[in-house]
Write a structure and sequence with these properties.
Elements lengths: L8 H14 L2 E5 L4 H12 L5 E4 L6 H12 L6 E4 L2 E4 L1 H10 L3 H15 L3
Parallel strand pairs: 1-2
Antiparallel strand pairs: 1-3, 3-4
Helix pairs in contact: 1-3, 2-4
């Protein structure tokens, strides 16, 4: 089920920021996107937890994609963030995994350590 917001641009921007902040790895994609599927497969194969929003399954999906464009300059999905930082799309994400094999797992470990230190 799609997240509920007040529908305002400010509310949607907060939703995007909250998902990026609350997930060590956050993927904004579309359910039918083969490139998003490749990113999901990478993360599943590494058994990494990640946040995922399918923008095509949300009433506000187009508005959220516009917010992501304003934030990153990237028009396409998937739009991937790690530790709050924009990684890019499919090619950027797969390339990062190839160049730095522990990049994603280290981000998850760091987030879990931080959550433990905060008592979460």
């Amino acid at each position: 089920m799609a997240p509920v917001t007040d529908g305002s641009a400010q509310g949607l921007a907060k939703l995007v920021d909250d998902h990026i902040r609350d997930n060590a790895i956050m993927v904004f994609s579309k359910s039918y996107c083969p490139f998003g599927g490749r990113v999901e497969t990478l993360l599943k194969n590494q058994r990494l937890p990640y946040g995922l929003l399918y923008l095509d399954n949300m009433d506000e999906g187009e508005a959220i994609q516009n917010i992501l464009f304003d934030k990153t300059g990237q028009k396409t999905v998937p739009n991937v963030f790690v530790s709050g930082n924009h990684v890019g799309g499919c090619d950027d994400t797969l390339g990062k995994a190839q160049k730095e094999p522990d990049f994603f797992s280290e981000a998850v470990k760091a987030a879990q350590s931080e959550a433990s230190a905060d008592g979460a």
